[in-house]
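Just scan my protein:

——
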Amino acid sequence: MGKLKNFLQRKDIELSWKRYLIDALGAMAQGLFCSLLIGTIIDTLGDLSGWEFLVKIGSYASAMSGPAMAIAIGYALKAPNLVLFSLAAVGSAANGLGGAGGPLAVLVIAIIAAECGKLVSKETKVDILVTPLVTIFIGVALSAGIAPWIGKAASAFGGLIMQATELQPFLMGILVSVLVGIALTLPISSAAICAALGLCGLAGGAAVAGCCAQMVGFAVMSFRENRWGGLISQGLGTSMLQMGNIVRNPRVWLPPIVASAITGPLATCLFKLEMNGPAVSSGMGTCGLVGQIGVYTGWVESGKEILAMDWIGLGLICFILPAILCWLGGMLLRRIGWIKEGDLKL
């Protein structure tokens, strides 16, 4: 047992939830951003401007989402170079065969293939042949065997959430908004979760609302401590920066959570806010305005007639209401002593 433990330690294989569900999932979201998301943004700019070369660039970037996710996962797992580069083929196979649930298939299969590749890396004199062969063979074989099933399961679960949101927009609006918003602030990836489940439609709109409530909420609520730098880094970056302060004083999390519970059902019931762009955008909130660009992309691609009410709803749900609700909530908690000066300092 001791020898196995020493071997795994030497290979930097750590069987932990943190390594696989925080590090790998977070890296997968970055891979998605650098391929599918940025490609969608460029493609949208091309459609709006009529510049065909932007559409082409966007399509090339989007097509690389599978390899980009797998390589990002391998990087998070500290895979050696030969394993890392071999994961491009694994990601392409898993994402392609996983269908709508491709991102989840990539996450599971890339982790297994990367760890298997690490096991044999530099163990033979023909490492340049053995390591890529093991990584690619295991990854592609698993893709052929289980990726379609993983994809179907993820797609079915995501579809169940979306169908439930259509049937019960008020209750599911609260549930989806609060849970996805919390996931965004926790050191896991809400974007990767939304992508893996293919969360779109009204449920995607609720997810956007929850993420915006956390990001804009914390940015405005902590303006006293962090000023303009904090406003930008949290409002356009991530509310995850507040995680250390939440651990020290969990009550600072109450205003953004309450705000998400209010804006979620408003998004689903009143404004009918839908995310029909890339599902990964549902979990991005105001990060680089990706959530808002995703909503707009869905409007354009569906041929929807964009009304003034749509813009008003988008602005209220994503920016105005989270700012007002969290500012008021923060003031109340400061007054009763639940939040003290410096509790939100980054």
User: Anything to note?
Assistant: The two ends are 44 Å apart (CA to CA).
